[in-house]
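Example record

The entry below shows one chain as it appears in the dataset: sequence first, then structure tokens.
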Amino acid sequence: MKKNIFIVGMDNFNLEKLKKVPAAENCEFHAAIDIDEIRNVDDFDIEKLISTAEERINAVEGKPSGIITYFDFPAQDIVPILTSKFGLKGPDFESVLKCEHKFWSRLEQQECIPNNIPAFATVDPFDENVFNNIELPFPFWIKPFRSFRSYLAFEIENRKQFEENLGEIREGINFIHKPFLKLLELHEVPDSISKIKESCIVESPLYGRQCTIEGYVFNGEVNVYGVVDSLKEQHFSSFSSYEYPSSLPQWVQDKIIGVATTFIKHIDLDNSAFNMEFFYNNFTEEVYLLEVNTRISQSHADLFEKVHGTSHHQIMLQIALGEHPAPLGNNGKFKYASKFMLRTFEVGTVMKVPTNDDIKEVEEEMPGTVVNVLVEETQELENLELQDSYSYELAEIYIGGNSRAELREKYQRALEMLPFTIQTNL
């Protein structure tokens, strides 16, 4: 009998990754929610999404064996609701919120890892005196309680900059915050969290080398199986690439894992994959937690596949099936792997993108390379959904190599072969 696995946010890229992992041999995958129903949409109707997923799960012959996602809001918020309803392996909804709700998460972190987090406070962006109520010194970050891909996250260095960005926050915050509040209303969440009038958090900035750990907790046992370096553009906060395995010293990685484990156990997160972003400050030799997600990062899937021979979709799937995850192994074709994010920092119109033949030439010249173009000709960059606050992502380029230098050499060659033309707005 095939095991029915339902995906919240099914897309072709990740479906192909899933089908290749060993745990998928006896599984049949179904869309509880399709990716087009939660991306490039006008709004998120949370109640409709949940009821649609329930209907589709009930419509398939045979009982569901697992429900999974590799996407952020609202997918990872919906999964624990569905797993609970159908009696399947998965995390408790409240423990997920203690990760995904930025303010609630900081409160929990303050109780167990107070020395590993920035100073923070809440703000109401619609308060006429919002600036005067902020007690943190410049610079600071302002972010919505719930977001993803750094949507509406701004680093503020002075009052003028704050006032310029405040209008954008006010205009766009309810796109995610309003449906997120609906989720909180539908479930028993403390009034101190669900009824709070503020919708943004302000935080002192973190500095140093940034990385993301990938791990899981299964039947109370926490395990971290990978550390990925997160590299940024030279003069911006936007990510330029992810590189695996990390070049951080092992003692730093061990310290990060220790902090992560303390927090995961504190909030009783269980039977879930997770990824956590950290900074290592080499002056203080301390590590600081930026944020937590209760899912695998699908951006890292190809990196694990290139280095280990299988993506970490394997771990996510085994947890959903109630199986203790097995080590990924070391059967990959490369020692190192990277995901490069090709970006532009100017507003404009896309005039030319690589053709399928252009992409094929790159992939043939550099086997293992994967090119995913994210824009189309005539597309206005300012209309791209949920970009970070400083750039527009044009393409994702996944590359494997046997040295870190080889990764960069291949990327430069790929850029030479992939024609993008952007007409900037004057």
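Notes for this example: The first helix runs from residue 12 to 20. The longest strand covers residues 221-232.
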